[in-house]
Amino acid sequence: MESIPRWEVLSLCGIGTWVILSSMFNVTQKIRSLTQPWVSSYVVSTTPITLKIQKYHNKYLDAFFSALSCVVSVPFYTAFLPLLFWSGHCKLARQMTLLMALCDYIGNCIKDVVCAPRPSAPPVRRITATEDEKENALEYGLPSSHTLNTVCLSGFLLQYILSYTQNDDAITGLAGLVIVCLFVFFIALGRIYLGMHSLIDIIAGLAFGLAILASWLSVHKYIDYFIVSGQNVASFWAVLCFLLLFAYPTPQLPTPSFEFHTAFNGVALGIVIGVHQTYHQFHHESVPHVFTPQLTLPAFLGRLIVGYPTILLVRFCSKALAKWMLPMLANALGIPVRSSSYVPSLSVSASAKKSDQIKQAGYIQKLFFFSQQDSFEVDTGIRLFQYASLAWSVVDLVPSLFFHLGL
């Protein structure tokens, strides 16, 4: 039996203690009462800046900034990260996945703590060209997730490329930095132009993004070493994943932010478990890279043709399995459950709902059975299982298929 390192116990106990204390002392409400009025006033006072930028609107800029927002959206990274794994850049892929999960958690926590409004529309003109953007518009404003994620992921990608190519040329590094800065600038400008964020949201996204990136660059090597060769990796990350569901603030009104966090929390869990189990088979540093004799372009395209349908099938099947299994398990344990969207037979009527916040509120009370609610939301468990299964298939099931198919 493996011994449990002290830092694992201390870190998990620390998070659990924070969950309990923050719930007991209403930390979220106290922080919100201090920050929300100040941020809201800045959102209103910077509306003229947004209107000045939007004076230059035309159909070409609408299309350009809408497309640019899609490039850094969660669906884009959901498709892009598997491509990195299957192209042989496994270390970059797993680190970017965990960084994305961290950005998503911190950014959405801040949104639902502060609960700052987005720019009022009208007078601001809001453009939501895709269903993803329409869902994003339902979240609170500060910070801008697009800006925060772009700072972290493009900055980390630049650092990885310079390190991977072992390029110490100052001019090359400066050119890369300029490209990253321009990319971040256009993303930030686009969020204001589209009416999705105010200037204060952008500034907060930049500040938090730089802080997260600096922190990640100082610890990512240790985290990666733990994932590929540590002890109790699967059990530690499963408990961490569970605690992070509880260590999430309750917003004033329900938003999709918690659902996004649950999804990426599940993705991180599936990636960590899959990589740890199959590192020496599929994810070590000597795996073939695309555009090399060991992994030619036709073979890589074959991987994509096999890989994407497989993970979509796993997502569908795992969701169906969770919708059947979790309610049955809860029933066997005598736990009353209900579903807001996944299981129609467990849904409750609108008159029976006091608030949709039940999905996000009172997790610590539920954990210790202090809640006075007569049933519990099962959608979170379904979503977590679904995305964990999808991520596991990306790094374990699909590479196994590649091996057997000679890809």
UniProtKB/TrEMBL annotation:
Keywords: Endoplasmic reticulum, Hydrolase, Membrane, Transmembrane, Transmembrane helix
Transmembrane intervals: 7-25, 63-86, 170-192, 199-219, 225-248, 299-318
InterPro entries for the chain: PAP2/HPO, PAP2/HPO_sf
Annotated coiled-coil segments of the chain: none
Gene source species: Solanum tuberosum
Membrane topology summary: Multi-pass membrane protein
Protein name as it appears in the record: Phosphatidic acid phosphatase type 2/haloperoxidase domain-containing protein
Matches recorded under Gene3D superfamilies: Phosphatidic acid phosphatase type 2/haloperoxidase (1.20.144.10)
